[in-house]
Each structure stands twice: as structure tokens, then as C-alpha cells.
Design goal:
The complex is a heterodimer of chains A (379) and B (337).
Chain A: H1 5-19, H2 31-46, H3 65-77, H4 86-99, H5 102-113, E1 119-122, E2 138-142, E3 150-161, E4 168-174, E5 183-189, E6 195-200, E7 209-220, E8 224-225, H6 231-243, H7 250-267, H8 269-301, H9 310-332, H10 344-355, H11 363-374
Parallel strand pairs in A: 1-4
Antiparallel strand pairs in A: 2-3, 3-7, 4-5, 5-8, 6-7
Helix pairs in contact in A: 1-3, 3-7, 4-5, 4-6, 7-8, 7-9, 8-9, 9-10, 9-11
Chain B: H1 7-21, H2 25-33, H3 38-49, H4 68-80, H5 87-101, H6 104-116, E1 121-124, E2 132-133, E3 140-145, E4 148-159, E5 166-178, H7 180-218, E6 220-221, E7 224-225, H8 230-258, H9 264-290, H10 301-313, H11 318-330
Parallel strand pairs in B: 1-3
Antiparallel strand pairs in B: 2-5, 3-4, 4-5, 6-7
Classes of the chains: A alpha+beta (379), B alpha+beta (337).
Chain lengths: 379, 337
């Protein structure tokens, strides 16, 4: 562990102990809950804890990857609120830092760090899910009749998490015919003229994601990320982050496994006896993911890169998450179906975990990537 | 806290791999199964030339005094090549036991020979390890119990599912060490042997995956390589995932044992559970991908398939190891260290 990590861990732990709300906030997928989560993000940002790994000029501390993992462990161990801005923080921000202009970073990252602007992802479409390169929503170049050059966006995006209450979205649009080489990465406002957002109720009953209809929505050139037509390559580098380290840090599973062991210990009786091995396996899985991530972080810090190996982790953590929560529900027995309350958090976690094998590239797509790119099996 | 293998350690594994790949280990394993230990023993001396047998022996007894991570790296490569013989016993547990007994006379008597590769040792450690593996090929057989360590002679010999492995009853004779200090040394030998066994399983699992990928790329049916079918791809991807996430547990456990961490027993058991599970998944997939040819003794695959089944229950069953993990995590020692 790098020098200073111990002091950093202590600072984060102490701050969270003093600030994490004692009662859970209302669901982030309600108007009130969204606003409360936004306030929480501002509190984090004021302590310079909302984006510890970012450069100081954007609101971070320039922390190392290892320190970021430590932050995440403490954050999840403290059962702190879900990060309302996570799509922007963990997907768009690394993309802007790698492919965006200095002007874009200066303009967009500080308000993102303070949750003044919360971002949603607009990639999937009704006919472009696993086959993301089949994107049809279009970006048409316009440069007449306006003060600045830009693009008109039209089409439908869907399964856009947090889009019901978020401010802006980042998406992939077809600017030229073809597949991978005709896509452009663009940013747009969710309350801009021509945008309609239709909330979609998820499996758990809340409007966690939305469909976005775009009808000639103007986007200035300043909100194109990277070069027009280069969107696929840029998006895939974001997807690598999503599957790789940033979206599901091990702290989440370590904390959940610790709570599962505690649930098992308190349960006792024949049900607990029969579920012991599954509890142990969930704990071992969380520990494996944690050790693996720390080793990966050390490798990246030494100049290594993360490519198709990210697919190994995505399948592993998403299946671990489902197994862990299924075990908790089996321990709860007849109480498992009850919504709300302290125990109901296991059910919420379970419903959330079920989405894991689907988003960020389905696990079937990931297994094919592993087989072809890592093992070298024929296409 | 972070466990990445150093460039030197990766180079060591690669040298071992090269030596074993050129040495016809499957041929030696087949001869071993027929009762002819000579090619296997010759291989053992070659491994000694690279320092494998000296890793767990302290420097003052002619060894290298290496870390348990080095021992794990070596044993993983031996498992990768289905090396016959009492690998976990002779390369890890017995030298670990004798060194931990800290008795100059015993060290002088056995450790130099073990380090040099002239002596192969095995042991029984009941109830964890009720029989001594490959006692008929060993020059030293021990019976390790919490109260005493004895020299032993091989009693009734049993065949294993792994044809290149036998199991013998260990009949205790001369007491080598006894008293309260012995329990700690025996416990240390148990962790060392379990780690080495887990490493062998991980290595065997890797070999089974490699063989499956090779076969799936070469074998054609319906006019295309079977490895192009999604059912085969996804099954082998799952094998790769299991192996990938077992290794960090193994390496972390080796570091915990080396450093004498309070979590060592928990970590060793977690590693054994994960490596066994990953290797068994690799074995089932490998047999299925190979089809009928994999279900023969004509094909070398059986050497790995049967070794995985044998080692899966050796050095503590999955149930015992899961119980040990739960005992550690349920009493509150949940520190994520």
C-alpha cells in the first residue's frame, strides 16, 4: 500500500462517520430522493471527497488508484448513499480527461464534481442493445442559419439510468452510414428543445431509467467529444472503464459480504446451517475480487493497461452480486419478499444486482470477448 | 497489501515451465503409474537444479529460505505439468515441518538431502491427511500429529484415482519430536502443504484450459472448429474466470503464511476452496470439450483430470476449509486485510 494511504483511510472513515445520514435517504429514483442525493454529493464535494482521484483543478485531490479503492471501501463500509452522479463521474469524466478538450474539461468537470450537473448515459436504443454499433439515432451536421456550427440529433435512446431527473446526457449518434466508423460522441441537455423524457418503471417499481426521444435537438460543436466519426473508439474506452475498475469497486462487495456474514450469524438454526457454504463462498468471492482489483491497480500504476481482461471482472462481480443477495434472501426466508425497512435493503440490493449481468455489456457478450480475445478461440 | 508477482518470480515460473515442457512429464507420469519411478526421480533432480527442492529449506541447512509465494509459484508450475510424486509434501510440508521444529539434529539429518533433491519425503497428518502419498517413492515417511512427529513406515498401500499416485498408511515408529512446541510446527506444515496443493490445483486447471482451447481450435465438426460454437466459448470463458479469481487468493494466502499473519489459516482455506473449485470446473469442461477421446487413458488429458480429483480432497476437504473460513469470519475477525 502506498505511503499515506493509512492516514487517508482514517480521514475518510472519520468524515463518513460524522456525515453519513443515520437513516437511509429516500430512493434516488424519486424527485425528493434525487434532490437529497444531490445535496449529499455537494456535502462530499465541499470536503473534496466527491472525486478524490481527479486533479485538484476539477475538484479532486489527485489521489492514486489505490487511494481511490480505499475511499470506496470506506464509503461502502459506511453504507453511505448511492452516488447519484455515478454515470458522469465514472464513465463520462474519464472519457473527457482522455479524449475531451481542455475547454470541455474546465467547463464540464467542476459542476459534475459538485453534482450541479448530473449526467445520464444515452447509448442503448430499442434496436441497439448488445449490438451497440447498430445505433440509428442520428447526428446531422448543420452550419447555416446559426451563429455557431453544430449538429441536430434525432431518434430514440433508452434504458438511460437517472435520466428522469438528471440534467444532461452523453450519447453515441450516427453521423455517417456504416457501423463502427460512422458514430459520433455527443453531449446534450435533457431539458433542451426537442427532448422528451419518458420515465420507465423498473422491476422494483421505480423509474430508475427512461426513454429519451430526440427531435432535431441542436448540439454545438463544442459538445462533440473527440473527432466526429470517432465515437465508437471513444465509447469503447469508456466501456473499458465501466467494466474495469471504476463502476463496481470491490468495496461494495466486501461491505455486502460482511453484512451477509452478520445476517447469517444472527439467523442461526437449520436454515443458517444449510446456507453456510453459500455465505462462505460469497465472502471468498468478495475477497477474491478485492485482491484481484488491488493487484490490477498496482499493475496499472506501474504502466500496465487494461483491455479485454476487464470482461473477466465484469462477469465475476455481477454474478457474485446476484449470488450474494440471493443467499441473503434465502436466509431471510418468508421475510425476504417484504419491501422497506432495514431487511428490505437486501431485497432492493437483490433487484439491483439482477441488472448487473445485463448492463455494461451483457455477460454473454463478455464471455464471447473472453473466449475470442483472451483465449484465442476462433470467431 | 498488494500481491503482484515480481519479474524474477515470473522468470522463475517461466524457466520451470520450459524445463518441464521439454522433459516429457506425461511419459514419466505413465511410468510412475506402472511402478517405475526412475524417470520421475530424474525429473525431480532436474527441478532441484533450478532450486525447487531448496525453496522451503532454511539457508543454514543448505536451502534457499525462500518465501511461501516462491514455493507456491513452483508448485503451480509442477501442477501445470502434472508432475508425479509427493509434490506438496516433499517441496513444502516436510521441509516446513522440520524447519519449524527448530531441532538442529533433525535439520542436519534431513534438510540438506531434501534441499539437494536427493531425498523425497512424504507424510501423513491425520485427520487432515490420513494417508501418506507416494510413500513407496519416498526416502522419508513421517507421521505428524499434534503431540508428536514420528518416523513412519509405509503400511497398507491403496491405489488413487490418479494412476500416478498411491496412498499408504503411515505406521509410526521412532519419535522425532514431541511436546507442546510440536503442535505449532505441525500446524505450520499443514498450512504449507495445503498452500502447495492449492497451487498444484491451480496449475492443473490452467493446463486443462489450455488443452481445451487447443483441442477446440483444432477439432472440426459440422465444417467448423468446435471452438467457434458459443456453447463451447462460454463454458471455457467461465473456466478462465474461475482460474483468474482464484490466483489472487492463493498469492495472498502465501504472503499471509510467510508473514505469520493472524488471518493465515482463513486465507489458506479460502485459497484451497477457490483453487479446488476452479480446477474442478476446468476438469469438467476439459472432458466435455474433448469428448470421448478425453475419456480414455490413451490421451494424456486423464493425467490432469485424475490428479485434480485426487488433490481436490487432499489437504482438507472443501467442507473442512469452508468451516475454517466461517470460523474465522463469523467471530468478528472480518478485517479486510
Amino acid at each position: 500500500m502506498s505511503p499515506g494511504t493509512g492516514a487517508f483511510r482514517a480521514e475518510v472513515r472519520d468524515w463518513l462517520r460524522a456525515h453519513v445520514p443515520s437513516a437511509p435517504l429516500p430512493s434516488v429514483d424519486t424527485a425528493e430522493g434525487f434532490a437529497r442525493h444531490r445535496e449529499w454529493e455537494r456535502e462530499l464535494a465541499a470536503a473534496r471527497l466527491s472525486v478524490v482521484s481527479w486533479p485538484p483543478r476539477y475538484g479532486g485531490r489527485g489521489a492514486s488508484l489505490l487511494e481511490w479503492l480505499v475511499f470506496e471501501e470506506e464509503y461502502h463500509a459506511a453504507a453511505a448513499p448511492v452516488r447519484v452522479g455515478q454515470n458522469g463521474l465514472f464513465l463520462l469524466a474519464p472519457t473527457l480527461m482522455r479524449h475531451g478538450t481542455a475547454e470541455q474539461c474546465d467547463r464540464l468537470l467542476p459542476p459534475m464534481a459538485r453534482a450541479d450537473e448530473v449526467w445520464a448515459q444515452a447509448w442503448s436504443e430499442p434496436e441497439a442493445g448488445s449490438d451497440l454499433a447498430a445505433v440509428r439515432a442520428s447526428a446531422v451536421r448543420v452550419n447555416t442559419g446559426r451563429a455557431e456550427g453544430g449538429w441536430l440529433l434525432s431518434g430514440t435512446k433508452t434504458w438511460s439510468s437517472r435520466a428522469v431527473f438528471a440534467d444532461k446526457a452523453f450519447g453515441l449518434f450516427r453521423s455517417d452510414p456504416g457501423r463502427h466508423d460512422g458514430l459520433t460522441y455527443l453531449l446534450f441537455g435533457l431539458r433542451a428543445d426537442g427532448v422528451t423524457v419518458r420515465p420507465i418503471r423498473q422491476l422494483g417499481g421505480e423509474t430508475g431509467f427512461a426513454e429519451i426521444f430526440l427531435d432535431g435537438v441542436f448540439v454545438p460543436d463544442a459538445d462533440v467529444v473527440g473527432a466526429p466519426g470517432d465515437g465508437w473508439r471513444i465509447a469503447m474506452s469508456t466501456a473499458g472503464d465501466e467494466r474495469g475498475l471504476s463502476l463496481r469497486s470491490p468495496g461494495r462487495f466486501s461491505a455486502a459480504a460482511a453484512r451477509l456474514v452478520e445476517l447469517w450469524r444472527r439467523a442461526g438454526g437449520p436454515d443458517a446451517d444449510s446456507l453456510r457454504d453459500r455465505v462462505v463462498d460469497a465472502w471468498i468471492g468478495a475477497q477474491a475480487y478485492r485482491l484481484h482489483t488491488f493487484a490490477t491497480a498496482a499493475r496499472l500504476a506501474a504502466g500496465g493497461t487494461l483491455g479485454a481482461e476487464a470482461s473477466l471482472g465484469k462477469v465475476f462481480w455481477s454474478e457474485l452480486d446476484v449470488a450474494l443477495h440471493e443467499t441473503a434472501l434465502d436466509l431471510l426466508g418468508p421475510r425476504a419478499e417484504l419491501r422497506g425497512g432495514e431487511e428490505g435493503r437486501w431485497l432492493d440490493g437483490y433487484l439491483f444486482s439482477l441488472a448487473g449481468p445485463i448492463y455494461a455489456g451483457t455477460n454473454e457478450i463478455q464471455r464471447t470477448v473472453i473466449a475470442e480475445r483472451l483465449l484465442g478461440l476462433p470467431r | 497489501m498488494t500481491f503482484t508477482r515480481s519479474a524474477e518470480q515470473q522468470q522463475f515460473a517461466s524457466s520451470l515451465h520450459d524445463l518441464l515442457a521439454a522433459a516429457d512429464v506425461p511419459g514419466a507420469a505413465r511410468r510412475w503409474a506402472d511402478g517405475d519411478h526412475s524417470p520421475g526421480l530424474a525429473l525431480w533432480r532436474k527441478l532441484a537444479g533450478l532450486g525447487v527442492t531448496a525453496l522451503a529449506v532454511p539457508p543454514r541447512s543448505g536451502g534457499l529460505g525462500a518465501s511461501w509465494l516462491d514455493v507456491v509459484i513452483a508448485c503451480e508450475e509442477l501442477g501445470h505439468h502434472a508432475m508425479p510424486g509427493p509434490v506438496a509434501e516433499s517441496a513444502a510440508a516436510v521441509p516446513g515441518l522440520i524447519a519449524a521444529l527448530a531441532d538442529e539434529r533433525l535439520s542436519a539429518r534431513w534438510l540438506p538431502g531434501l534441499a539437494a533433491g536427493d531425498l523425497i519425503a512424504t507424510l501423513a497428518l491425520p485427520p487432515w491427511l490420513p494417508h501418506a502419498a507416494d510413500a513407496d517413492a519416498a526416502g522419508l515417511v513421517l507421521l505428524a500429529e499434534p503431540g508428536a512427529v514420528r518416523l513412519a513406515t509405509a503400511g497398507t498401500r491403496h491405489r488413487s484415482v490418479d494412476p500416478a499416485r498411491s496412498l499408504s498408511q503411515a505406521r509410526g515408529r521412532e519419535v522425532l519430536a514431541q511436546g507442546p512446541a510440536v503442535a505449532g510446527a505441525v500446524a505450520r506444515a499443514r498450512e504449507a502443504g495445503t498452500l502447495a496443493c492449492a497451487a498444484q490445483l491451480l496449475g492443473a486447471g490452467r493446463a486443462l484450459l489450455e488443452a481445451s482451447v487447443r483441442h477446440a481450435g483444432q477439432r472440426s465438426q459440422f465444417g467448423r472448429p468446435i471452438g467457434s460454437f458459443q456453447a463451447v466459448k462460454h463454458r471455457l470463458a467461465d473456466v478462465a474466470i474461475g482460474l483468474e479469481f482464484a490466483r489472487p487468493l492463493l498469492d495472498a494466502a502465501a504472503v499471509a503464511v510467510t508473514d505469520g499473519e493472524s488471518t493465515a489459516a482463513r486465507d489458506v482455506s479460502a485459497a484451497k476452496v477457490a483453487c479446488t473449485g476452479a480446477a474442478q470446473r476446468a476438469a469438467r469442461a476439459a472432458l466435455q470439450v474433448h469428448g470421448a477421446i478425453g475419456y480414455t487413458q490413451e490421451h494424456d488429458l486423464h493425467l490432469w483430470l485424475t490428479k485434480v480429483r485426487a488433490l481436490a480432497g487432499a489437504w482438507g476437504s472443501q467442507a473442512e476449509h469452508r468451516a475454517r473460513v466461517m470460523a474465522a469470519i463469523a467471530d468478528g475477525s472480518l478485517a479486510w486485510s
